[in-house]
Amino acid sequence: MELNNVYITVGTTKFDALISAVTSELALKALQIRKCAKLVIQHGNSQPLTEVETLLIRKTFGIQVEQYKFRPNLEDIRAADLIIGHAGAGTCMDILNNRKRGLIVINDTLMDNHQLELAKQLASENYLYYCKVQDLDAELISLDFEALKPYETQPENLTKFVSAVNELMSF
What is the pLDDT of residues 20-69, one digit of tens each? Predict the structure, then answer.
């Protein structure tokens, strides 16, 4: 499966490790193999790439990089062939409601790591994949994104999702 347009999002958080992982040489090689031509990075409060870094990525891997801190992102989501993001509930819902393929990256530096439980549940239903930051490059190479099933945006599914998030947050 070709991933021409890949969207990276950290939401409102700071997740420098995700930005570093997705722009590492191994991850960029994996994206290049999958025919990625454009990488759109919503970096939130994380450190953005420098102009030199974005030019180097374009020159070395043929991938155009666009980045921003915050803006309405519906257009970026809809244009993406793959969304790579932190495992916040909002990002997960954006992936599901827009019927996109997703790879959720767990921020295991968080105190209670509720993100892992949410990601595990959604992965068990075959809606998206998840991984740890250090495994991102290997997952980009090996995962079959076509095997993911589209989320059915029926009211009962949203109710189930909200209930699952509420249950996770109550621990």
Answer: 999 999 999 999 999 999 999 999 999 999 999 999 999 999 999 999 99
| DSSP SS3 for 66 | strand
Domain 5-169 architecture = 3-Layer(aba) Sandwich (3.40)
For residue range 64-92, what is the model confidence (pLDDT) as tens digits? 999 999 999 999 999 999 999 998 889 99
Burial of residue 152 (number of CB atoms within 10 Å: 0-12, 13-18, 19+): exposed
The values of phi and psi at residue 164, to 5°, are: -65, -40
Distance CA 24, CA 57 (A): 10
Task: Enter the pTM of the model.
Answer: 0.90
Tokens representing 98? 């827009």
Domain ranges of the chain: 5-169
Distance CA 137, CA 21 (A): 7
Exposure of 133 in the CB half-sphere (CA atoms within 13 A): 14
